[in-house]
Write a structure and sequence with these properties.
The protein is an alpha/beta fold and 350 residues long. The protein folds into two domains: 4-88, Fe-S cluster assembly (FSCA) (GMP Synthetase, Chain A, domain 3, 2-Layer Sandwich), CATH 3.30.300.130; 95-344, Rossmann fold, CATH 3.40.50.300. The protein has helices spanning 4-10, 53-65, 82-88, 115-128, 145-148, 189-202, 221-229, 243-258, 289-297, 309-316, 321-324, 329-344, and strands at residues 29-35, 38-45, 72-79, 100-108, 133-137, 156-158, 161-163, 165-167, 170-174, 208-214, 233-239, 262-268, 301-304. The strands form three sheets. The protein has an eight-stranded mixed beta sheet, with helices on both faces. A three-stranded mixed beta sheet has the order 1-2-3, covered by helices on one side. α4 crosses α12 and α6 runs parallel beside α7 (221-229).
Length: 350
């Protein structure tokens, strides 16, 4: 009868392609139980739906079923804890971002919620609070930061490194600077990962306190691929109050948490609208969605940004609100958010 030692010995042949060691030696195969003709074991991965999952499970099942008297194999999937991940997969700093202290990736469950507007003005608020700040427009579906900041659609290089464009105190790089305004963007998962890694490694970001990254909208692979390419990134999720937006945001939260990505909090955009004909705010997209989601998930609601017509107009003109009206009520909300995030990170405004 096959015993646990023999199972472990046989599984030495399942090698992690990146780490070049067996899953047994890495401690990723654990809790082996033999019940008659059946073997049960646990496979620990970085993420439950990791890209190597099916490959590993198939190899384990094939090898174990070849052992004498074994006809069934059950592989349970679990995730490595953060300490195990850091030990097995130590982060190698990419050259371009080795001097960047903090990363905030701005995400949304769906398009049309003002994600890029929030990302741009948060970056400007960090800069206005005295922090050295960069902005990476990684929206593979529609990079619009060059329009919102009135930037040229090209990048320059020096000594093999891409130089960020500087505008309003920010260092800026956008995927929109790699193609013309009317060119279509068609990206697949591996190309997305390669391009983002390229921008992180070959852009000379220099000394930065914060790098704000504008992620693509939605809950698909590109957002996760990009977020996982950024070491120690915290996610800020933008929503609007209505339920249709919250449904998608819930999916985003679940997806990011499943991939062990830290979510710093929620930002509710287009919360309410004030007009000269009424003293009461008009709740165009409903009421309390952000607060409801915060209670459900335990994530902090960092801000409720009003439906501000000037916020949209200023972005279209290439002069974002934090530049055109830095003392406005909406601008003060962005400044407050960045002050709170800086306090959480242990930073003090200069």
């Amino acid at each position: 009868m096959t015993n646990e030692k023999e199972v472990r010995q046989a599984l030495q042949g399942v090698i992690h392609p990146g780490l070049k060691k067996s899953l047994v030696d890495l401690g990723m195969i654990r809790d082996i139980i033999i019940l008659g003709e059946s073997v049960e074991l646990t496979l620990a991965l970085k993420a439950v739906q990791g890209p190597l999952r099916n490959r590993f499970v198939s190899a384990i099942e094939k090898i174990v079923k070849e052992l004498p008297g074994i006809t069934q194999v059950a592989v349970k999937i679990t995730t490595l804890n953060q300490e195990e991940i850091e030990q097995l997969f130590p982060t190698i700093p990419l050259k371009g971002i080795e001097k960047v202290r903090h990363f905030y990736a701005v995400a949304s469950g769906k398009g049309g919620v003002g994600k890029t507007t929030v990302a741009v003005n948060l970056a400007l608020a960090f800069a206005r609070n005295g922090f050295r700040t960069g902005l990476l427009d990684a929206d593979v579906y529609g990079p619009s930061v060059p329009l919102m900041l009135a930037l040229p659609d090209s990048l320059e290089e020096k000594e093999g490194m891409i130089l960020p464009r500087e505008k309003f105190g920010l260092r800026v790089v956008s995927l929109g600077m790699t193609a013309g305004e009317t060119d279509a963007f068609i990206w697949r998962g591996p190309l997305v990962s390669k391009m983002i890694r390229h921008l992180l490694e070959r852009v000379n970001w220099g000394d930065l306190d914060y790098l704000v990254i504008d992620l693509p909208p939605g809950t698909g692979d590109p957002s996760i691929t990009i977020a996982q390419s950024i070491p120690q990134a915290s996610i800020l999720i933008v929503t609007t109050p209505q339920e249709v937006s919250l449904i998608d945001v819930r999916r985003s939260i679940t997806l990011f948490q499943k991939h062990n990505l830290h979510i710093a909090g929620l930002v509710e955009n287009m919360s309410s609208f004030r007009c000269s004909h009424s003293a009461q705010p008009i709740e165009i997209f409903g009421h309390g969605g952000g607060e409801k989601l915060s209670r459900e998930t335990g994530l902090p609601l960092l801000a409720q940004i009003p439906f501000d017509l000037e916020l949209g107009r200023s972005g279209d003109s290439g002069m974002p609100l934090l530049v055109s009206a830095p003392d406005s009520e909406t601008s003060r909300i962005f400044l407050k958010v960045t002050s709170e995030l800086a306090a959480q990170a242990g930073e003090v405004a200069r």
